[in-house]
Amino acid sequence: MNPVFNQPINISFPNDISLTIKREDLIHPFVSGNKFRKLKYNLLQAKAENKGALLTFGGAFSNHIAAVAYAGKEQGFQTIGIIRGDELSDKIEENPTLKFAQENGMKFEFVSREDYRLKSEISFIEKLKDKFGDFYLVPEGGTNELAVKGCEEILTEEDSVFNYVCCAVGTGGTISGLINSALPNQKILGFPALKGDFLNDEIRIFAKKDNWNLISDYHFGGYGKINLELIEFINAFFEKTKVPLDPIYTGKMVFGVIDLISKNYFPAHSKILLIHTGGLQGIKGMNIKLKQKKLPILKTND
User: Fold this and answer.
1) What pLDDT is recorded for position 299?
2) Quick check: pTM over 0.85?
């Protein structure tokens, strides 16, 4: 585990507003950001239950799939990935995420999008047990009570100086952990990567306070959607700060925060902490798509 540090963003904002980004993306070279936090206690629980295998779910470019594959290998588990989209079964070599997961020992089961929607059904899980034997089930995106417990460790004593803590939201686990560990004077703002209002109910399952709000205006059309404006923003931010952002989660969140600053959403003198939740492994796959669409590619440290 590498040390996480808070990096000030050296961009001048009006009204004496300052931005700092918590570099959770640097926590581990392959299990970065919130994936490390979410898996920490789940892996301990899997060992306590003497499970030899981890089974989880994800899409073609899932950060979660890549993280489970590597963490499982590192911790001595077999790993099984139930992948959304049966058309991907013969495309592993051309998909950087799936190729990485396979190289780290993950076995795949490709299912149709219709079947994938059944992933929470008991009958579906039982069929998987019949096929793969006993396993420890890690939910899609990794969110459960143990994941939230891990995410409660993101904020530390040095973060008490911040008025606002902002993060991207996928399944709601990360923001729930931040909500639970935030101080009374701190407001947690979540920026969903998906369309829809269902996340409020998901977060309320785990969150123990009311110190939070979701801002749903920056999903850029939905999960995995990206346009030229976002690409240019992410690349310009990287040029100014040397901080790479992923286009699915953190890039949209940072875009949203800076846009809200320009619209005077935050009071003067606000100190804002941005949580970098990792996800940079997905940039290779996204750049393949962007080249096909003849759009600029995303810049990274690679």
Assistant:
1) 86
2) yes
